[in-house]
Amino acid sequence: MTAHFTAARSVYARPEAPQKTPRSIEYDLLARVTQRLAAAWATRTERFHLLAAALDENQRIWSTLASDVASSENGLPAKLRAQLFYLYEFTALHSRAVRDNKASVEVLIEINTAVMRGLRGEGGTQ
Q: Is 0.85 topped by the overall pTM?
């Protein structure tokens, strides 16, 4: 029994990776999908399916963020929550325009990048 306790304690005493905060997880998700959007846009003519997949992933992230900020339990200021929800609605509409070949992903990349700056504490207050 002592050997099991010692083994368990040694495993839990030294975590292999530091715990991520919700902000860092959100940042990582946005960074990954933003990179995918940029790469997929560059090859959209030959590989439209990659652009469609990146747009879908971006929309899933924004849908999750919108659900979170719409919750009454969300601790962000009401104005910021409303702005983030508006960005969700905008990304949904703009993504459809990109799929219909009527717009580029540039503004989606700019939005994600601005939110990532905010998550890193680099954004200004308005």
A: no
